[in-house]
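Thread: assembly with ligand

MN 10:42: here's the input set. Chains plus the small molecule as SMILES. Want everything predicted jointly, not piecewise.
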Amino acid sequence: MDRIASFCINHDTLVPGVYVSRIDGDITTYDLRFIKPNTPPYLPNPTMHTIEHLFATYVRNSALKDKVVYFGPMGCRTGFYFLIKDTDEKTALQLIKNTIKECMEHEGEIPGSTAVECGNYLEHDPKDAKDKLLWYYGIIKDLTTEDLKYPL
Ligand SMILES: [Zn+2]
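BT 11:07: finished. Tokens for the full assembly:
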């Protein structure tokens, strides 16, 4: 079998940030990397789950909601993938920054955290999610489109 594109990037040189992972036609996949690969501790699953619910909710309520394709966690627990269509990199990066900020400022109930709405509704950690989002926002807030290329 072919080695898929996301396994071909050098995970040794990758640091937390935002990257263009791949482009498929009009859909761009962004790599929201929170953790330097292979350097534990990784994001705990309850933390990732809370960030997933918050980001998906805020981005799907944004002005660009009709362009949003998907947001979800990486199995390695070092970050998330965000897929958006028909949107230039500058606009997408600003959307990511705005959404991360909204998520870190979120107060109260986590959206979609009832048994009918979610497959594991008790597994959340709003406190740690806020801490990680605050930290990550500090990493990404001044990034420009120049920073979206994976390091060699
Ligand atoms: Zn859920």
